[in-house]
Structure formats: C-alpha cells, structure tokens
Write a structure and sequence with these properties.
Oligomer: heterodimer
Shape of chain B: globular
Number of strands of chain B: 11
Distance between the termini of chain B: 41 Å
Number of helices of chain A: 0
Order of helices and strands of chain A: EEEEEEEEEEE
Radius of gyration of chain A: 13 Å
Number of helices of chain B: 0
Shape of chain A: globular
Helix content of chain B: under 10%
Largest interface: A-B, 23 and 20 residues
Strand content of chain A: over 45%
Chain lengths: 114, 110
C-alpha cells in the first residue's frame, strides 16, 4: 500500500513556542491531506483538510490561526501549532488517500507542551 | 456534518467467542466505511472496509455489514483471540474526509 511518513514522532516544547509537524506521501501524490488530533483514550477528531496550493479547510471549533497548515507541494503538508500551551498536548496524526479512497496514516506525533 | 456513534465503548469476551461492534452515521452521502484497529501510541490500522454499494464483506474471521437504509454498519469478529485485544474505531467517509466513531476497547480473555 501507499506510504505516509510523519515527522517528528514525538516532540516536547516549552509553553509559548511553536512546533511544526511534517506529513509526506512517499510514493504517491496527494492533493488533499487530513490532520487529526487524538487525546488519550479518545477518538481521532478531524481538525482540518489540507489542500495543495490553496487554503486549508478547518473543522468547526478549530482555530485556524493557532493551527497553521501549509500544503505547498503534492507530497508535503505541514501543521504548525503556534504559541503552544499544555492543553495542546496530544497525538497529532495526518492521512492521505490514494486513488482507491483508502486512507493511509502517518505514524503520528506525540506533542507534549511543558 | 457527519456524526458517527459507536457502541459499546468496552467489550470483554472469552477467547473463541464472537465480538460485535455497531456504528450509526447521520450523513446519507457517506459512501465508504472503514474499520480500524489501533494500539496505544500507534497509527490506526485498516482491518476491513465496505463501500455503500455493498451490503456485506468478509475477510477470514472479520466481517462487516452495512444497512444504508438504517444508516448503520457493524463489525463482526469470530473466533476471537487474545491478540485481537485493542481499540477499534469505525469511520464514515464523505469526499475522503473520515469521521470516526468514539471507539470500542475490546478485551479477549484467554
């Protein structure tokens, strides 16, 4: 199957700093990628749809100025958590679909804000 | 928007027994329904999926059924094994966007 790679797998940052997470489709082109957040013992919640060459589409309740998404190429989307706070600590995971609609997930990024 | 409900939240079965997890969705435009198994700290792993033009699909010990009229779909695992213990999520997809159910923690006791 297709491969989606996410980096870093874990990161610890100080409160008030920004963190960038990368999501790459390694063997296919993805005009659309998706970003999810998962708190402990909860489900994956869709945050936004990343669109190559245009603005991301954010789900209701997700602050677009806090979670900056850039999709500058057909194989790379980035999520930047700006001015991170402890409540932003979570598991962030991206996905991209191949032509058959199946979603392929990155490994996920465990963000801890101290 | 789409809303997916999943039951039960926890399920304990004896090894060899069957396990059934049920989901309902709200958006009739949803056309793709995958099921994922997720282990702690890992990415979701697709175990089976079904599209809206199919009523049932089976893969060895795992089967999924879909009732489009009632907007519900179910995961059936037969002959459960301890290694089936994990958290399972259903999802519904509209325009490639996945909306996940709340998850079911399955425990299979030897």
């Amino acid at each position: 199957g297709a491969v989606v790679s996410q980096h870093p797998s874990w990161v610890i940052c100080k409160s008030g700093t920004s963190v960038k997470i990368e999501c790459r489709s390694l063997d296919f082109q993805a005009t659309t990628m998706f970003w999810y957040r998962q708190f402990p013992k909860q489900s994956l919640m869709l945050m936004a749809t990343s669109n190559e060459g245009s603005k991301a589409t954010y789900e209701q309740g997700v602050e677009k100025d806090k979670f900056l998404i850039n999709h500058a190429s057909l194989t790379l989307s980035t999520l930047t958590v700006t001015s991170a706070h402890p409540e932003d600590s979570s598991f962030y995971i991206c996905s991209a679909n191949d032509r058959d609609t199946e979603a392929f997930f990155g490994q996920g990024t465990r963000l801890t804000v101290v | 928007g789409e809303n997916v409900e999943q039951h039960p939240s926890t399920l304990s079965v004896q090894e060899g027994d069957s396990a059934v997890i049920k989901c309902t969705y709200s958006d009739s435009a949803s056309n793709y329904f995958p099921w994922y198994k997720q282990e702690l700290g890992k990415r979701p792993q697709l175990i089976i999926d079904i599209r809206s033009n199919v009523g049932e699909k089976k893969d060895q010990r795992i089967a999924v059924t879909l009732n489009k009229t009632a907007k519900h779909f179910s995961l059936h695992i037969t002959e459960t094994q301890p290694e089936d213990s994990a958290v399972y999520f259903c999802a519904a997809s509209v325009e490639d966007k996945l909306i996940f159910g709340t998850g079911t923690r399955l425990q299979v006791f030897p």
